[in-house]
Structures are given as structure tokens and as C-alpha cells.
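I would love for you to help me understand the pair of lines that follows before we discuss the fold together.
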Amino acid sequence: MSQNSPPAHGRTGTDAANGEDQSTWDAKGFYNKLAPTKKPKTPNPQNAITIAVSSRALFRMEEEQKIYEEHGVEEYVKYQLEHEEEPFEPGAAFPFVKALEAVNARLRELYPESEELFDVVLMTNHHAQVGVRLINTINHYNLFIERFCMTGGRSLIGYLKAYHTNLYLSSDSGKVGEALGEGIAAATIFSPDKVVEVSDTQLRVAFDGDAVLFSDESEQIVKAHGLDRFFEHEKEHENSPLAHGPLKGFLEALGKLQKKFYAKGQRLECPIRTYLVTARSAASSGARALKTLRSWGLETDEALFLAGAPKGPLLEKIRPHIFFDDQMFHVEGATEMGTVSAHVPYGVAQRYKKSATKKEPAGGK
């Protein structure tokens, strides 16, 4: 080779001096081609399972929210602009979103062309000027969130519908109630009182039954006629499926993705695991709950009937990324034990009022 000839395969004299031979460079070139050069393609919302998350659910923004409440929107925007190079700290929904991304990574390995994936959309009614700091934070944590919706104070409902939202998580109970009223699965998320390590390879989601997966039909019986009549009612209607509750569709979406792993022989290695955690008693009222799920063509991986016992200690053992319940009593008990919990303000037993609850939603009030 002449002195002016380019090195073979881009190899330089320095490389040769370091002892890297031709086969090493061939291997490097091969693996470099395999390495991704860009982020995965964002799925079409009509095919994806869309999870809408508010900025205050995903990140800790208590200080910023305090500025907004005490000094108004102009000071709030000014503060955000001055601090836009400083990433927010992870919030209550952060581990859940990371787990969704872990599931997506497995799905892309098995089904490279499929758009049946989780698609996380950041939903906020904040001013668009805040967007730069949010983008910087998302890039800082290497999150795959490509869709943003910043409405500048306008209602999010129309946008939630346009994105075919399967679940909306927010720290604002008013927005959550509005979404539920429009038939959108939604919950107010709460940060745990202590940090508990959760799986980074398996998404774990725990659901209460009545007024969450199921309607509040049975709770209406309890409120009107007491527990004895409730047990009689459940026995009489054991083979009559309960009507669906606000999060039935989300469980259905999770089950659909689970079946994609089962189809590849990965039932035992499935990165999604679901739990029914209910205050019902197995012997007196459990059969109707399980038969209802069966009639829908759905199942949970585990069903835990606590017969009125506290849910927090059991959830501490399960370590779900999120737990959904319609009663603040159970939400508070779970967060005290380290579980990220989400309140579903639905049904006759609803007693959640911002002025009465001890617990503040994630990101502050």
C-alpha cells in the first residue's frame, strides 16, 4: 500500500499501534451497524395503548407549583425559563413509565413491525414556555416520550379523546373527575411515604375490584342494606357478571399485550403482571368477581381476597408500580407502606374531598 493510500476499512496507524488487527475492525464494523442510530418509531395512537401522564405526576414540581399559586403565571413562567437547564426530580409516575418502556423494548424484540405498544403522552395545561424544561428533563432521563400536549390553561378532555387515551394519570383530582365523567379511565396519583424498590424488568399493576374494574353495584348494596344483605346478593347473583368499571378497559389492554408474549411461549417470562387486590371475602363474594372477569375474557395473574384486612402490607410484598383503588382509606394505607397509589374517584362509596383528605396528590395540590 502506498504512503498516500487510505487505511483499509478506515483503520489508522494509531489503531495498528494499539494492536487492533483486521478481524477486530471487521467485528467493530458489524456491531456498529447493529447499534441503533435513532429512537424507535412512535406508534400510531389508534394502534397503541396510550398512557397520558401529567407533568406533575411524572416529575416533582412542588416548588414550581407553589410559585404559580402564590405569585401567578408570569412569575411561574419566568422561574421555569431561568431554570430550564435543571432537570426535575422523578415523580410518582416515573417508575411506572420506565416499566412501560421496558415492556415496549421486549415487544419490539419479538414484534419489530408491530405498533401495539405503550405510547406515553405528556399532558399538561401549563404554558408552552415550560416545554423546554420538560423536554430537557425527558432527555436527561432518556425517556421515550415524543408526544406532548401543553394546553395553556384549556381543558385536556378533547385532547385525551383525540389521542384515544387508555389511561390518564394526574395529580389534579378535578381533572381526573372530569375525565372519568367523559368515560376516560383516569386516576389521581399519590407519591409513597417511603421509597420501595420496584422491578425494572416487569410491569406490575394492582387493581381493586368494585368501582375500579367492576361497577359500584355491589357497594350500593352495602351502603343501602349492610354487609349481610351484600353477601346474600352476591350469592344470588354469582353467575350474573358485574357491569364494567372505569379501569376495565385498561386491564383489557394489558391482557392483550400479555397474550402477545404468551404466543411466543413466554408466559412465565412475561414482563407484565396484574393483580386483583380486593377487600371482598373469597368464600362469600369472591366467586362473582372471578366469574365476571372470566365472562369478559379477562384474568389477573393473581387474585387476593383480603376480607376487609388492610391492603398496604400485602402490596408492600407485591411491590407494584401502581395500585388503583376507589377509596382513599386504602390509598393512604398503601402509600404509607411505600406503594405508588392512584385514587379512582368513582362510585357510591366516594368520600374523597380535597378539603378532607390528609394526603396530597403527587406534585402538590
